[in-house]
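Budget justification note: compute hours in this period were largely spent on complex prediction jobs such as the one shown. Inputs:
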Amino acid sequence: MPEDQSSEFNVKISSTGDVLGVPKNKSVLAVLNENGYKVEQSCGHGLCGVCKVRVLEGEPDHKDMVLSPAEQSEFMTTCVSRAKSAEIVLELGLPSADTDTIPSSPIAIVDNTICVGCLTCVRACTYGAASIDSHLVGVGGIMGAATINAEDCTGCGLCAAACPTGAIDLTRFANKEIISQFEELLGSGGAVANTPRLVVFACPSCPASIGEFTPNPTKPVDLKVVEMPCSGRVDNFSMMKAFEYGADGVIVSGCEPGKCYFNAGNTNAVKRVHRTGAWLDNVGLGANRVRMLHLPKDGAEPFRQAVQDMADELRTAVRGDLHKANLFSGEETGVTEVVVEGLKAENPEDAFLREIGVI
Amino acid sequence: MIVAEQKDLPDLKRMLKGKKKVLAVGCGTCVSVCFAGGQTETSGLAAELSTAASVDGESLDVEVKTVQRQCVQEFIEPLSDDLKDYDAILSLGCGVGVQTLAQRYPDTRVLPGLDTQFMGQPVEPGVWEERCVGCGNCVLEYTGGLCPITRCPKQLFNGPCGGSEGGMCEVDLSMPCVWSSIWGNAENLDLTDTLMEIRPPQDWSTSRSGGLRRTVVRDDLHQPSAVSAKDTDSSDPVEEVPKPESPEDAFLREIGII
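Corresponding output:
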């Protein structure tokens, strides 16, 4: 998503002469796709360069982190970059007849040089996308390392979270992205007394992801959203790291039991949440600072209630900025798992697909 | 593979008390596979330790570096550049890794983050069982591939004992009696006669039964190197001190007999 939403400008397509207006809250990529000019994309954050397009005229406002200065004199990444001039001219082919463009999902990639061939990803993947390729060289020179078939991969991130060596990462929702979000959301301080800072690892259909959370103004909560493709992408390290940065509580939101959109994401997430709870007891913060929420598709109200409840419980135990010790008693309080009974959505898979813009 | 488990947090905190900056070194081989000391587990532990310190009102900075195999000197050599910044190294390798680091970096406190357990097999995801005790005199040819030293609590060579109950072991009824399993498959593998043979007692001198730590030497592969982690130079011949000649031998030589 573009971070600086302030500029409006026009994009002209060289081959057709079409002039498209790019409003403040839309990326060039979105405008192009909506108008039938299909541009491949992957990370959506200016990190991979897949969405780059040649600029023929005008001055782009580069916001990416992947193009070299030489490349930036010729191209721009349409997912994040904007324009300094009133109009930029892009070199693109003719629009496709199929205007229903499907955003490409993140995929998992293995760094075989640190893969130890433990088969964890192969066993974890419910799509059969992970396998051992005997031609790939793994850690310390062993023959046989994991590989992910991009066509079968749904980008749920289960393998990336399960991998013990960190050899697997996603092209979007990458490990570094998660940590840099903590840095941004929590690292610069700003804790307010009586206002718990809760980090929610939110999948695309979570009310927090789609901007449907409004806290009670008399019972404030500072909700920090870290987007995930699936609750199964969340690993113990990420949850613990949020606390290291000063979070008061962590929520992992996922599908209802037995209804995980990616088959096994929520069952893995629950186990990891329990383990993080044990770590939180060890360090003296208390296991009830981490929770798993199972939400139905229309989960805005249950989500709001669950967040509010957690904030109210933690209100007297706000940790503040990191250098101060906190006051939590450290008793073993057990992990709270909330199964939220909500409205039954008809055809939940279709509703989900519609929400994330696939259909 | 070697199977290990992380030490409990109270023990780790006790070992690191007073330290401000610690390097946690993970290992990319065995302990990664048993989820004890790989990159992600080590990073998780680092976050746990520094959060615990902040909860206690202290500060502890834990950096993480994972090497491919902690027992290999070439792989731990690159750590030397960073060490002056740290008060201690917390090794998340097996006991071999800890000692390799300690020997290479004798001026740095090297602490064990793991309890190394055994040589074992991942029987199913999340479960690892001991399979080999390294006795140094493998009897698996006689038992059809099932080890009675590791898997029989009494280390019997002529089991099953009288306590074997329905194929299970009396010491722990949830565990199969290995001798029951050995005999159960003996006919299939044509081992029945072999099992009835009388054999000499097991040579235990090669096993871990106290005494000197064991060494394996291959003369065809041995390349004495300047950089060595050996704790003795056991392959060099002991210099013989010549014995002074006895007076009788001196006489016999003088008269030409010898």
